[in-house]
């Protein structure tokens, strides 16, 4: 279906085995990949400090060992396709996304939560920010029902 629409759904990701089980999400932040195109890239695999990401072959999709992943977020910052995210249900719901706009976001900022199609689906608060290769890696609190939908943020209009 995503080949026609250009947007992958949470259900399609789950059917491809790319969504961690809820029990893992409750233990803490864990990487998820939405890298569904089979392209020759393995930046996430090379950058992962605990070797939790594996890409088989020249054009394989990344696979994450969710038990090995520490949720550090380095993969989120290095992915040139902005197709890596962190999900976390350990202390409420949180999503970590790449952010490459100005002005830079800071902890405590209010942001609009965007789905895969860029539609505003809610509002969240930035709870953590760090940088990897000039890309901000931003963690935002989200309503739990939006955990599998929020994949970008933008500064809320004031």
From TrEMBL:
Residues 26-58, 60-89 form the 4Fe-4S ferredoxin-type domain. It holds the Pfam family Fer4_7. Gene3D superfamilies: 3.30.70.20. One of its GO terms (molecular function) is oxidoreductase activity. Keywords: 4Fe-4S, Iron, Iron-sulfur, Metal-binding, Repeat. The keyword Aminoacyl-tRNA synthetase does not apply. Signal peptide: none annotated. It comes from the Archaea. The keyword Repeat applies. PANTHER family: PYRUVATE SYNTHASE SUBUNIT PORD (PTHR43724). This is 4Fe-4S ferredoxin, iron-sulfur binding domain protein. The lineage of its organism: Archaea, Thermoproteota, Thermoprotei, Thermofilales, Thermofilaceae.
């Amino acid at each position: 279906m995503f080949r026609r629409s250009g947007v992958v759904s949470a259900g399609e990701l789950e059917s491809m085995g790319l969504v961690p089980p809820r029990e893992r999400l409750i233990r803490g932040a864990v990487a998820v990949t939405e890298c569904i195109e089979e392209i020759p890239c393995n930046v996430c695999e090379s950058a992962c400090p605990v070797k939790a990401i594996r890409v088989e072959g020249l054009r394989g999709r990344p696979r994450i060992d969710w038990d090995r992943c520490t949720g550090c977020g380095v993969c989120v910052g290095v992915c040139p396709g902005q197709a890596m995210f962190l999900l976390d249900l350990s202390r409420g719901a949180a999503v970590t996304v790449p952010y490459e706009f100005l002005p830079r976001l800071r902890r405590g900022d209010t942001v609009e939560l965007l789905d895969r199609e860029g539609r505003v689906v809610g509002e969240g608060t930035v709870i953590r920010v760090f940088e990897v290769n000039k890309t901000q890696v931003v963690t935002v609190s989200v309503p739990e029902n939006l955990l599998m939908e929020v994949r970008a943020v933008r500064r809320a209009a004031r």
